[in-house]
């Protein structure tokens, strides 16, 4: 039998361990860099829920709660075991460091070798690479500030590759080369009806994923994402801004909606 699979990654953050710990365990802090809606009971046996609208709800149980050192959560995978029950997966956050620098190690484990786990494993492998950079950006540049989101998403029957081509092609954002950028390289695009987004690449863990720091919008965070899961392909346009007028965010929200409606109109896309 092949062994279970584990995803592990490390990141250095210019912030004290206490700040990183709060960003991982307190509902308001988590919502400043990760899921828009969060429930948190910070204790062993407590409930932790990360939620992205109605599209994705991620409920977990806290198994280890060692302040400033180790957080472990458990949740049900999408794969049933021989007993018919969902097989569990585990997320561990390990923190080390002193002064103003924290070494964060994330271990996401429990994935079986079976093909039925492939979609979940691939999704978290790419997702954490992006989301932890969002955490770093928040703690190093915007700590203590609430964020404003322009977030538009559609689901369709297209393959993830075809959805990405449409979204980043000439009828969409015209930025198909984004995933080829290395971290720190410059990027720029114009969102019709909203304005320019310019900055530096953060992470592109796949050919259908890009995120970057938006220098011309107060070092906000921009993300373009296409992923297939749950029997459909989901496309995201996401912009997080920590400073400035709210009407600017509303302008990008309307523009993102218009782009996705136009790009996926012929594919029978749905709001998700």
Overview of this structure, please?
With 272 residues, the protein is an alpha+beta fold. The chain folds into two domains: 5-141, START domain (Alpha-D-Glucose-1,6-Bisphosphate, Chain A, domain 4); 148-271, 2-Layer Sandwich (Alpha-D-Glucose-1,6-Bisphosphate, Chain A, domain 4). The protein has helices spanning 17-25, 27-30, 118-141, 160-168, 246-264, and strands spanning 5-13, 37-40, 47-52, 56-66, 70-80, 86-96, 102-111, 148-156, 186-191, 195-203, 209-214, 220-229, 232-241, 270-271. The strands form two sheets. The protein has a seven-stranded antiparallel sheet. Strand 9 (186-191) and strand 10 form a beta hairpin. The radius of gyration is 19 Å and the shape is globular.
Summary keywords:
alpha+beta; seven-stranded antiparallel β-sheet; 42% strand; globular
What does this entry show, briefly?
With about 270 residues, the chain is of the alpha+beta class. It is built from 5 helices and 14 strands. The protein folds into 2 domains: about 5-140, 2-Layer Sandwich (Alpha-D-Glucose-1,6-Bisphosphate, Chain A, domain 4), CATH 3.30.530.20; about 150-270, START domain (Alpha-D-Glucose-1,6-Bisphosphate, Chain A, domain 4, 2-Layer Sandwich).
């Amino acid at each position: 039998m092949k062994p279970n699979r584990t995803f592990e990654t490390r990141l250095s953050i210019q912030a004290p361990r206490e700040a990183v710990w709060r960003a991982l365990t307190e509902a308001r802090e988590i919502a400043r860099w990760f899921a828009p809606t969060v429930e948190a009971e910070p204790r062993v046996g407590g409930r932790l829920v990360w939620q992205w609208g109605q599209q994705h709800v991620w409920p977990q149980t806290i198994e280890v709660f060692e302040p400033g050192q180790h957080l472990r959560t458990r949740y049900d995978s999408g794969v049933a075991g021989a007993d018919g029950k969902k097989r569990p997966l585990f997320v561990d956050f390990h923190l080390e460091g002193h002064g103003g620098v924290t070494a964060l190690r994330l271990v996401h484990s429990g994935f079986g070798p079976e093909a039925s786990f492939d979609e979940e494993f691939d999704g978290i492998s790419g997702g954490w690479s992006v989301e932890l950079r969002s955490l770093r950006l928040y703690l190093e540049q915007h700590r203590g500030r609430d964020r404003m989101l322009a977030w538009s998403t559609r689901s369709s029957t297209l393959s993830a590759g075809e959805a990405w081509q449409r979204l980043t092609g000439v009828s969409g954002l015209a930025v198909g080369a984004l995933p080829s950028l290395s971290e720190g390289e410059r990027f720029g695009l114009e969102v019709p009806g909203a304005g320019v987004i310019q900055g530096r690449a953060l992470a592109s863990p796949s050919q259908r994923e890009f995120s970057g720091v938006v220098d011309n919008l107060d070092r906000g965070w921009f993300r373009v994402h296409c992923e297939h899961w749950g029997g459909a392909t989901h496309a995201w346009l996401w912009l997080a801004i920590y400073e400035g007028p709210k009407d600017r965010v509303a302008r990008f929200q309307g523009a993102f909606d218009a782009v996705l409606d136009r790009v996926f109109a012929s594919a029978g896309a749905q709001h998700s």
